[in-house]
Structure formats: C-alpha cells, structure tokens
Design a protein that fits this description.
The chain is mostly helical and 143 residues long. Helices cover 73% and strands 0% of the residues. It is elongated.
C-alpha cells in the first residue's frame, strides 16, 4: 500500500470596511503584524477623524435637544402669560416670564451660532476623513 502525504490548506478571507473599522480592529492588525508602521499611522488617523466626526455629531444632538427644550418651555410661558389677568401679582409674574423668555432667546442665539460652527467643523472633519480614506492603499497577502 502506498501512502501519499497530503497537506490541506484552507484559504480564509476577511473583509474590513473603513467606515466600520475600530480601534480594536487596528489593535488586532498590529498584534498579528498585518500592517506596517505607515499603514498603522494612516489607520490611526482615520480612526481619530472618525471619533472627531462622531463627537461633533453628538454635540449637534445635544444642541438640538437643548433648543427643543427651550422652545417647549417658551410655549408654556406664552400660554401662562395669556392665561394671566391684569392684577398686580399677574404683572409681576408676566415680567418674570418675559425676563426668562429673553434669557432663553439669548441662549437660543448662542446655540444657533454654536450649531453653525459645529456643522462647519463636522463638515471639515468629514472632508479630512474622506481624503484620508481615499488616500489609503493597502493590498497584502498574509501567510
């Protein structure tokens, strides 16, 4: 009986999308020596930019939430003012409501300015991220 040694190979393929690429993925790549220093640096830049874009998006959500809360509160103030009569106590309360509404309007103006700045910053960061992704070139066969 003849024996023939047979070695079996299994080809595996993993695919990573940069839009879903995480710091954990990068650490795995580094640990397994899948990437060289130049590629590691490029991937770290991409991850950092993704984090900054996410932070700007989260900040926009906070701004929008605060603005919505102020709008809701101002609606309540307007309804309260309409319901009040012309007594001396009512005039004091109306003055208080008007003062609060004035403060809220100032805050809304600040929020809108911050919102515009954050949108511009997020767009700038997204542009940097897009450029970094387009500039990345990696083609390696791993053994």
């Amino acid at each position: 009986m003849l024996e023939f040694p047979v070695s079996e190979r299994n080809e595996e393929f993993d695919s990573y999308a940069l839009q879903n690429f995480t710091r954990d993925n990068l650490e795995l790549f580094i640990a397994r020596k899948y990437v060289d220093d130049k590629t590691r640096a490029a991937l770290e830049t991409i991850i950092a930019l993704k984090d900054k874009v996410a932070t700007a998006s989260a900040r926009l959500q906070v701004i929008d939430k605060e603005a919505a809360e102020i709008a809701h509160d101002q609606e309540r103030l307007r309804e309260n003012i309409k319901a009040l009569t012309s007594t001396a106590e009512a005039k004091q309360l109306i003055a208080r409501y008007v003062s609060k509404a004035n403060e809220q309007e100032t805050r809304l103006e600040q929020l809108e300015a911050e919102r515009r700045t954050t949108i511009a910053e997020r767009a700038r960061l997204q542009g940097e991220l897009d450029l970094a992704v387009r500039s990345l070139s990696l083609d390696r066969t791993l053994h």
